[in-house]
Amino acid sequence: MTSIKSLRWLMRKKSGLSDGGKSSFKMKQLPFLAVLCTIMLFIVYRTTKYQYHQEEVYPSTSGKLKGLPRGIIHDNSDLELRPLWSRSNSRSKAVYSNSNLLAVPVGIKQKQNVDAMVQKFLRENFTIILFHYDGNVDGWWNLDWSSKAIHIVARNQTKWWFAKRFLHPDIVSIYDYIFLWDEDLGVEHFSPSRYVEIIKREGLEISQPALDPNSTEIHHKITIRARTKKFHRRVYERRGSTRCSDLSEGPPCTGFVEGMAPVFSRSAWYCTWHLIQNDLVHGWGVDMKLGYCAQGDRTKKVGVVDSEYVFHQGIQTLGGSGHRMTKVSKPQRTTMKQGGVGIDVRTEIRRQSTWEFEIFKERWNEAIAADKNWVDPFKSDQRRIRKRRDTQRLPKNNI
To answer: Does pTM surpass 0.85?
Structure first.
């Protein structure tokens, strides 16, 4: 009996050792399985991402592209000039280093000022595109850089009209920043390279250079240069109809640039282009909504650069060419004769701009009402501001 018990004890012991060995083996397998699972998850992620990219580039719903093999489709472009011919050994070596774009609506009367502006930007390897609203292109060919620029002509059209039609996001997708400037900006104290360096470092998706305080025309205090700063994102104003303080979370106190010299990142321009209305060509009201295209918090992503500033001359140009004109006594006023009836062009343009502004506001409100899934990213800020104001108004003995 003792021997039988001893045999059973030995068998149980052996069995225990065997189970321990299996457990030890299983423990050693765990790190390997974890690595294997990680690799499998990575493969699934990459495959899903690739499929998503393929669907994004080659939409399955687009029957218009079914006749083409996918690999031949090139869905974007640029504004770089290409040579008609080149040496065979240099064809594959051509490198286009321009990573930023300057687009300006121009008239021949502002040729000297535009020349000074363009020369500064060309030295920094900018692509230049000129929108000729007066129809005069021949008057620019005697400038050394003219053949390096892209010239587009459409009489009496605005900057926003040109931008909507010729700066499609797919066309300007290679550029890091799009400078959409007016022609009447003095650039004596402005460096494009230093400006780009600042907005990159500070993460400004939408920006503008500050205005010299002595500029002829200034509409909003936030655009005025602060002499002691490199840049600013907000302004403080205790007087007038617009009160700006730390409680202000929207334009024109913060998250705001004006329409005369905006600078957009690639992502911000993609959004802004879709915001610009095709038929509301004066663009009034768009500047107040640009913060929605700031790719995040507009109080942080939108700003004014003080160290690189410009002088705004405030010259009225549209409506002053292409027609038979008669100057009248008041400055900046031009009348156009049509069938013997004099028309004050500048007044009519202002009326059109005001009308477009009202239409834009109506469309914005209608779009909000129609889109039930849209959530205003800044609405929570407004509620927080109202709450803080209500708290400050309470009597101290109630707090």
So the answer is: no
